Amino acid sequence: MTANDSSPAYCIIGLGLIGGSLMRDLAARGETVYGYNRSTSGARTAIKEGFDASDRLDKTLIRANEDHALIVLAVPMHAVGEVLDAVVEYAPNCGITDVVSVKTAVYEEIDARGLKTRYVGGHPMAGTQHSGWKASETGMFKRAAWVITYDYAAECEAAGEEIDSSWIELFKTVTRMVEKLKAEAVPALVTNHDAAVARVSHLPHVLAAALSVVGDNGGVLAQSLAAGSFKSATRVATTAPDLQRAMCESNATALVGALDEFIAELAKARDDLASETPQIKELIEAGHRTRIRLEARSGASKDSVSPVKISSRPVLRLHPGGPNWVRQLSQTEDIGGRIEIF
Amino acid sequence: MTANDSSPAYCIIGLGLIGGSLMRDLAARGETVYGYNRSTSGARTAIKEGFDASDRLDKTLIRANEDHALIVLAVPMHAVGEVLDAVVEYAPNCGITDVVSVKTAVYEEIDARGLKTRYVGGHPMAGTQHSGWKASETGMFKRAAWVITYDYAAECEAAGEEIDSSWIELFKTVTRMVEKLKAEAVPALVTNHDAAVARVSHLPHVLAAALSVVGDNGGVLAQSLAAGSFKSATRVATTAPDLQRAMCESNATALVGALDEFIAELAKARDDLASETPQIKELIEAGHRTRIRLEARSGASKDSVSPVKISSRPVLRLHPGGPNWVRQLSQTEDIGGRIEIF
């Protein structure tokens, strides 16, 4: 890192919905930020809007290497391996993080290239159904959970090995970036992350697709009558299909588990409704109870009367590298909490 | 009806989310509107806000009978029979419509009391997850589909019998009420309505409940990471459980059919994801295609540059009682269209 490691340069690879929004927020704060976009037109649009963008991956990474920049991978899963090969070649000095919606598959690519000590994974739980630079916006990550993975540190602890000090610095750098974006840094191991997002992100995409199809099968009358509940539940089906497939297919094992659980719930409700006295008491009441409970656990309360939004995620103030800090990360993960570093 | 049958008095039985919003809109237009609410506190709140409300069903219906008012049933399905008994006793002169989210079950209650010639069913495809008078608001029905049933007319046609002229007047009165609310009158037979809403309204409620449960099973980390896609898809799970049960249980046959279709889609996707080369191409692409298509068929386009919102539902201008008018209703239903009367 350069002189002041709390403000490194940021090099964003992929300027789509998430990468573009990240560039906007960091630039708005006056940080040094530049990036690469595969499509020339996307890069050109960003440049026209005053951002520092390029459609040359090699040049962008060489510059990042000179700056000791933090590299943020913001490309779809299928492009991660190829980009990492270029990082190995052109930017051997740089720490790496990412914003990809699956973490095990990324970690396998990292491990295959011996990059574990240079990598802290990330995943912002934010976005819309739109994609590309044109869909990017400032403030997208405000109060959103931003997962930060710490598998390398946990592996060192388990093996009784010392954690590389440069990795600890990288962990700080990534966490500080999250704090700068006003997001909330939630620590998680990659497998736990993938199991959680299979339930709360990838499963909703599959359901949205299936519900769209079943609604469509009802013909134009059903489509004409589709209103709020249907539209809310199917909104994310309009996300670009290749992005949805990338998420679901690269997290297939966890997603199949979530689907099995979901299908079992539906099958039970179906039988209750098909019985002589049709009823759906159990599922509707359980759904209501759990959804109300969720409101209190998933970020700032909307009903707060305070002008300052208070996060409902418990916070742990952490000193990376300090005594027991990896165990503290694990404990914070267990309660879905967030960290602040000092 | 009184002198001017295009502006009858309106008597709303049940001042909850829908009934209350209806009262607000009609009152704001200067129509004569009054209503009954079972809970004294709800009625009292409406009165305090300047509305003409009562917690006495008999008195309210006697008044409606004197006014030849249009009675609008806005109570949950399980209360419909009891209210209809009171209508038979206290308001034998009045036409009846309703806003209940199932139509076959209501029509059976109507038929059991020999009220077919006095009934035109209705169902506004509008609302929120909240309930009760306090959740009611003006403008809720603007541009929403409002189903109007015409089974009695279709039955007369099929039997070669003449349609009671008072029913035709009632059909006009109900349609005009819908027009006054700036909603769009979509004709449908009760069984077709129930099959359609099983897909686009009741199924989303079941899915929201099941997804809430599966998300909750993931523990606090999953709940902490739940963001836009999960929250959109589960929003309606916060609807009062008894209202959700009333909808689903009174439309159980159609809902079981929709659930079977949905489960089959999911099971197929599950197997595709569990295969050696995990993929979910077919479902994601079909979901994307159908959801994009829906945008064009379910009301005003949000992307229109015109300041005047144009409905995307085809419109038929209809003269109730005129030649072929029942066939025209049926044709309009087949294309999910709306009617305007003259």
TrEMBL record, chains A, B:
GO biological process: tyrosine biosynthetic process
Molecular functions (GO terms): NAD+ binding; prephenate dehydrogenase (NAD+) activity; prephenate dehydrogenase (NADP+) activity
Pfam family, one: PDH_N
Keywords noted in UniProt: Oxidoreductase
Prephenate/arogenate dehydrogenase domain residues: 8-313
Xref: Gene3D superfamilies: 6-phosphogluconate dehydrogenase C-terminal like domain, NAD(P)-binding Rossmann-like Domain
InterPro entries found in the cross-reference section: 6-PGluconate_DH-like_C_sf, NAD(P)-bd_dom_sf, PDH_C, PDH_N, Preph/Arog_dehydrog, Prephen_DH
UniProt family annotation: Belongs to the prephenate/arogenate dehydrogenase family.
Identification of the protein by name: Prephenate dehydrogenase
Organism from which the protein derives: Corynebacterium yudongzhengii
Lineage: Bacteria, Bacillati, Actinomycetota, Actinomycetes, Mycobacteriales
